[in-house]
Amino acid sequence: MKNIVLITGASGGIGSAVALKFISEGYPVVLQYCRNKASIDRLAASFPKDAAYLCVRCDLTDADDVTRMIAETHRRLGTVSILVNCAGVALPQAPFCDTTDEAYDRVFDLNVRGTMRLTRELYDDLRDNAGSVVNLSSIWGVSGGSCEVVYSASKAAIIGFTKSLARELAPSGVTVNCVAPGLIPTAMNAHLSDADTEAFRLDTPLGRLGTPQDVADAVFYLANAAFVTGQVLCCDGGYTV
Question: Is domain 5-235 in CATH 3.40.50.720, yes or no?
Answer without folding.
Answer: yes
